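Here is this case:
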Amino acid sequence: MMKFTKQNFIFLVGGIIIYIVDIGVDFWVASKYFSQGQYSWSILILCFRGLSSLITQIFSYEWFKNDCEGTDTGKLKWIFLVHFFQCGIFIRYWFALKYGCQAAFKQKSSGDASETNPPNFIQKQAIDVVTDINMLRVFNTFLETTPQLFVQIYILMEHSKNNFCQYAAIIMSFCGISFSTVDYQISLRESLPDKDEFHMLPKLVYLFYKLLTITSWILSVSLITLLSVRSSVILLIFLWICGFSWTLKQHTTFCKSKKMEYLYRTVVGIILIFTFFNIKGRKTKVCIFIYYATHTVVTLGILFLYMFWKPAIIKEIHFTIVSILTVLSLVLGIIFLVVYYGCFHPTAYCRPQACPDEVDGEAGQKDRVKTGRFQNFIMQ
C-alpha cells in the first residue's frame, strides 16, 4: 500500500476549502437571484444543493453503519443525528485531518507507532477515510456542481447578462470538478494494490481530459436547451435511462442492501450523463469508445441542427464563440483521453481473486477485516 504523504494532506486541505467556499457561493448566488425576482433559478440552485447533500449524507451514514457494524450503537445514534442535519461530511473531514496529519507529519518511523496502531494501520486509516470523502465528492460533483455549471452557462447564454456572482459560481464549479476528479484518481491509486503512483504529469493529463470533455458536453446541452428546453430535458432523461440500464446490466454490488444499490445505480446513471464511469474495474476500451463517439455525434448533431433550424443565429458572435469552444474542448479532451489511456493508465485491473480483503491491523486487529469500497466503485 502506498503512503499518505504531505502532498496528499495539502490536497485534502485544499479540497476542504473548495467545498466550504462552494457552499457559500451557492447560497450567495441563490440569494442574488431571489433578490432580483428570478425565483425559479434560485430554487433550482438550492434544489441541486439540497438533493446532492441528501444523497451524500445517506451514503456517508450507510458507510459509517457498515464500518461500525457490531460496535457501540450509541455512537451510531449521534452519527445519525449529525447526518440528519446534513453535517456528516464535516465529521469525515475531521477524521481525515486527524489521521492524515498523523500519517503525513507525525509518523516518521515505525518507532512512532504503538503495537495496537502499527505503521501500516495508521497509513490505511488515513487513506481509507480520505478515499470515502473523495467518493462522496464525486457524487456531489455530478449531482450538484456539474448541473449548476450547466445552469449558469445557460443563463449567461440565454439572457446575455452577466455579473460577478455568475462568474464566481462558474469558477467554483470548475474548481470543484477539478479537485474531485483529481483527488479521486489519487485515492484510487493509493487504495488499490494494482495501481501505480499518480505523478504530476498524469494528474494534469487526466484533469484536462475530464474537464474538457465535460465542458464540451455542458456547452452542447446548453445550446440545445436554447433551442428547446423540452428537447434538452428529453435528451437528458434518455441518457439517464441508458446509463441506469447499463448499471443494471453490469449487476453492480456496491451496497449491502437492495435499496441502497438501486440508489447507487440511479446516481451512476446521472454521472454517466456527463462523463464516463467504470463501475466494475474492468477493461472498458470498447465502452469508452462508444461513449465518447456518441457524445461526439450528438455534439456535432446539435451544431448542424442550429444551421437548419435557426440559420440566422449562426451569424451572431456569441454562437460562433460557443461553437468553437464546444468543438475545440471536445477535440482537445479526446486527445488528452487518448494520451492518458495510452501512456499513463495502469494496464492491470483489480479482480476479487487477485485483490483479497486487506486486514486493518496486525496484533489485536486480526478479527477486523475491511473490504475496500473501491473494489466495487471505480471511475476511470
In short: DSSP finds eleven helices and two strands in the chain. Residues 119-159 form the longest helix (41 residues).
